[in-house]
Amino acid sequence: MRTFGRRVGVLSFLLLSLAGLGCESVRPWERELLARPEMAWEPDPLDAALHQHIHFSKEGSLDGGSAGGGGCGCN
Predict the structure, then answer these.
(1) Burial letters for 35-68: b for 16+ Cβ neighbours within 10 Å, e otherwise?
(2) Which entry of 3, 10, 30, 52 is 20 to 30 Å from 44 by CA?
(3) CA gap 25, 40 in Å, rounded
(4) Are 35 and 26 in contact (CB under 8 A)?
């Protein structure tokens, strides 16, 4: 029974040690290199605006907005 508790303790220590190795601070001048445009949610803002406009025109609603209506313009 004591060996099981010891193994769990050693395993927990190893996992916490590995988790701590993944954390690294980034200096302000290094953030520029890490913030590449292709890592953004929407790499092309013009294309994203076009798709949002098409979606609004077809669905008659905005994402996360309170405006409603139909796509036919009859409201």
Answers:
(1) eeeeeeeeeeeeeeeeeeeeebeeebeeeeeeee
(2) 30
(3) 20
(4) no
Contact, 37 vs 31, CB < 8 A? no
Q: Please state the pTM of the whole predicted model.
A: 0.35
Closest C-alpha to 62, from 75, 72, 49, 47? 49
What region, left, alpha or beta, does residue 33 occupy, with left being phi > 0 and alpha being psi -120 to 50 degrees? alpha
Residue at 6: amino acid letter:
R
pLDDT in tens, 40-67: 788 788 998 898 888 777 776 555 555 5
